[in-house]
Specification:
Number of domains: 2
Order of helices and strands: HHHHHHH
Number of strands: 0
Amino acid sequence: MADIATGLIVDGTLDVLIASSVVTWGLILIKGIQHARISYHNRQFNKAFWSAANIQAAAELENLQGPAARVAGIGFDTLIETDSGATTHDLEHTWDKQELLDRRLRQQSQKERGSLESGLAVLATIGSISPFVGLFGTVWGIMGALTSISKSGSASLEVVAGPIGEALIATAVGIAVAVPAVVGYNFFIRRNKVQLAFLDDFAIDFVHLALKNAFTIQRPAKASSSRTNDSKTNTTSTRSVGLNIAQEAHA
């Protein structure tokens, strides 16, 4: 029974380590794809934003994605909201325009930080505990092997090497699981710092641009042009009706 229990514990330890390895490599793959997409979208947005003629033209950019685009979108929405002339009496709008803009940009940056850091706690945990889980399996396996050896009454190399060698596999697997988890964690922490520094710099530049523009911005020209076209259509139809009435009266 003791041998069966020892085997079950060692096998369970190996199963836990294998599952942790699958989770580790899955997270590394997911986070790698996430960072590749973020870098691509940020480069595209940064190029389009700073190529715009002015901040109004930048506000009318479309089909742009990524953290920087979302931060800019919050900034543009805040500028439009504060410049709309609507009277609000809640606590949020007791800030002046610059303070409110700073606050909204900072909140959006924190949301992006949360997205970037998701999953990293799991990598850190696996990297920290995997060697100890493997060591636990090894110690338990060695205890079972020594118990079996004492019962058999033989301490020859053939009897000792097999069970103890099998028990040591758990430590090796634990280290093999921990190394990629720690490397992946450190790599993505570094990438997060780069991305967040980019967002912080962009938010500061955005506030400076808004300040230079007196924190005023018009709604996107697409909506304005549609309203203009509608008003022109209404004016034309009104004039047509007026001419018809005048012609009928003259007749």
